[in-house]
Write the structure tokens for this entry.
Amino acid sequence: MSHVHIIGGGLAGLSAAVDLASQAQVTVYEAGPACGGRARSFHDKALDTVIDNGNHLLLSANPATFRYLDRLGARDTLKGPGAPVFPWYDLQEDVAWTLRLSPGRIPFWLLQRGSRVPGMRLGDVRALFRLMKADEQASVADCLLPGQFARRLLEPLAVSGLNTDVKRGSARLLGNIVRRTLAKGGNACCPWMAASGLSESFVTPALRYLERFHAEVLTSTRVSALQIDEGTGRVTALETSNGPVMLGAEDSVILAVPSPVAAGLLPGLEGPDEFESIANAHYRLAQPLQPRGALKQAGFIGLVGGVAEWVFLHDEVLSVTVSAANRYADWGQEDMLTHIWAELRQTLDPLIEVPLPEAMPVARLIREKRATFAATPEQDKRRPGAKTAYANLALAGDWTDTGLPSTIEGAIQSGVVAVGALGFRTASAGAAHA
Ligand SMILES: Cc1cc2nc3c(=O)[nH]c(=O)nc-3n(C[C@H](O)[C@H](O)[C@H](O)COP(=O)(O)OP(=O)(O)OC[C@H]3O[C@@H](n4cnc5c(N)ncnc54)[C@H](O)[C@@H]3O)c2cc1C
């Protein structure tokens, strides 16, 4: 049986490992103390509870992700309203609304005042077609039409989906999201979140699955070099923090590390080299919120016109996402937490049974400095496919050429594509990008 060495135990590496486990001997080398990479849960001392490094929102139009979860028997670890329901609040204009998409392709929701974006004109939806037809150079801002449809829906969708501001964000990448989601109708847009934590949904079930196939998962094991025989065009050995690993003639390698690490291990590799941060503010409440109406149904709310962008309700913890957060890099932690707390009180108090206290509770700000590559047209062009010049080496990771921005779906899809690039069977036809 051939042996596949997977470097990196984030979701791309785990997805490849899960796909390969029944076909090959598998070893995963993960530098950190646990797998999960940028999508992980941990116990936070200050809050004295388990939190995710960042809130992750998925839409139902994520086929590779749901295939992965189904294979692991973990779909029921997600929670969501089971319908395309998105409560929103405009902090500047003090307007609340709920976007309720109609299930099929025909957008009946646009004709219903109570379901669409308040203040939008029907003609504004032309922006969706402009995004889907955009060329590789175009920015999101090039395709938007001024008005509330852009301000209250497309801009927030772009900033959170691309993690890049609209002036620089790639219209092609956002157009790909629109094609998979809004253009297909509400059934493709149902929101999902990890119910008990990202690790409980995406990591622990994968490790359990891999154990069944006797795959090895070596945490706290950093790979520092690849030895390559240019004559045969093959990787022949790995240098790891636990010593060298010699590869057999049939062995292969999947490099599923972030782009700068991959470029360090594989000289000459060009990948994204500009990054954007995401900040997450977590507040520990004395008791769970008692939400009403659409907030209760969805379990989250989107905000426009302020700093906070998405608020997620997790029992006693309120978690807030701020995307494209490089712009707030100089803002002190305490000031940012206090500012966001005031926005939360303004937004949530009318939507909950018991108002939030004026005094900010125990809180924690986590800034992931290199959360995603900057999804600009220039960075998108730097993304390589899964195949490399070496017959037994493939690339995976959300930064490879998935056609998507940095997302769970892109990461999981890329693992499957890398498996296909090495000539193994894959879980899906998603291997088309190799
Ligand atoms: C705060 C935040 C919020 C996000 N929100 C969303 C969201 O709402 N929806 C969504 O779909 N996506 C979201 N994302 C993006 C998503 O988390 C990533 O796209 C995905 O987790 C990337 O997985 P990956 O396996 O490609 O990379 P990574 O998770 O970076 O995995 C790479 C792994 O390689 C390991 N490694 C590095 N160097 C070495 C080495 N030398 N040897 C061995 N191992 C090594 C790392 O420790 C890491 O575990 C968010 C990301 C962040 C940070």
